[in-house]
């Protein structure tokens, strides 16, 4: 492979990783995606398989030519969304399509809808459906990579296949479904896909060496006067078979070399000191050992760090007034082995969107986020409570590790200055201190499971209207970032974000709730001059309500 071809291949892969929408569709789709887009790791509507399956099936159930029995099966799939109802709907649609025959124009629609439903069943926990999805993505990856015409798409399909294969390893149909976007899960498989590609490159190199050695033994052109050739005697072999890692490195912008990402981190090493739960207790998950056994001794994935430049630009595109915040946090990503940011306080006057900024940072990092409200907190239960009490529980970060299945995530403590200063039942601000020191966070004693846990990969971000009520020891452990307020020049972006929030809350798409037009924005600009987002939100809601009142009735 020539250097020119390698560079072009690298550029294609890098472009696909940075902007997969060409293949996988929009990151926040307003309507169900095509099956091909799902094979690349496409998202569900509202990042929720339940909302997606209803949006997919409801219009179909209204069409003429659909039998009453099939309509009932489709309604059950969105009324009671689970792996069983999704699989039943898939089979019913395939049977109906086969019965209609190829000449019926409705048959193709039925067949395409049936092909999409295994992705919903897999999301609801079906290992069989996840295996089917993995096989489809792997077949697509092989087609694209072997042809050499679209290696970027091939890479995305490969990591999607690995994600579904991981889900297929265990049946999760009895686990409560929790909506979550695919993109943050997919990034965890970049390193796995890279390792697989490197292994295949090494296998290809070995096979090439065996072929040359066979030629030597037969006296072919590869024979040398000195006898058997060694690996280093095979001219151009390294150049002809570059690893995918080398391709990505060649395409990456010149920057300080990043340390290789860790394969994972064991958050909880052992629970053997705890009594074994009774069978009925294990089913109820009311035993500390039964509750946390799923992560005992298991390396949890460390989600990789995003490119610092991409992190800043993507965040600033969504919220340009927050660019200084994104730029400060991006400093922690340079050379980082995984996504993490140092303990940070986001401070600004009320209503300027600190909690939204916290969520935007977590989204840019590609990490799950858990928000803990400090307002009115009058105890230290954040750090866990002893199992001798009936209300005993693990610490909030440990519970999050169990829920999310990763070692690095964001814990946001909202309105930290409003935590009670009373220490009779413990203090939230005191409890936070050891979590914010990486050395102590590597072996934090959890009173519920009575064992040390490693939470050093967790990112902690607090919000506050003012630091006046925050104790000095806590302030000393935090990087203080002032959150700028949006100005009038940001109105189009802010208004679009607010309409998108309202749209998501109401379960509508852009067809039913479009963005504000120029006249509406001009009217808003007369009443909002920047600053707090709360009055702007009320203005936007009033404007949308006015649309509904003025809409013609038919």
Describe the overall structure.
The chain is of the alpha/beta class and 554 residues long. It has 4 domains: 186 residues, no CATH class; 56 residues, no CATH class; 175 residues, 3-Layer(aba) Sandwich (Rossmann fold); 63 residues, no CATH class. Helices cover 51% and strands 6% of the residues. A 5-stranded parallel beta sheet has the order 4-5-8-3-9, with helices on both faces. Strands 1-2 form a two-stranded antiparallel sheet. Strand 4, helix 19 and strand 5 form a beta-alpha-beta unit. Helix 4 runs antiparallel to helix 7. The longest helix has 28 residues. The radius of gyration is 27 Å and the shape is globular.
Key descriptive features of the protein:
ATP-dependent peptidase activity; ATPase_AAA_core; 554 residues; P-loop_NTPase; AAA+_ATPase; five-stranded parallel beta sheet; alpha/beta; ATP binding
Give a short synopsis of this structure:
The protein has 554 residues and is α/β, with parallel strands linked by helices.
Largest sheet features: 5 strands, parallel
Q: State the helicity in percent bands.
A: 40-55%
Spatial sequence of strands, sheet with the most strands: 4-5-8-3-9
What's the average pLDDT?
80
Helices and strands: which structural class?
A: alpha/beta
**Got a strand count?**
9
Radius of gyration: 27 Å
Count of individual domains: 4
Q: Report how far the terminal alpha carbons are from each other.
A: 65 Å
Region (Disordered): 279-300
Domain AAA+ ATPase: 340-488
Biased composition (Basic and acidic residues): 280-296
Protein name: ATP-dependent Lon protease, bacterial type
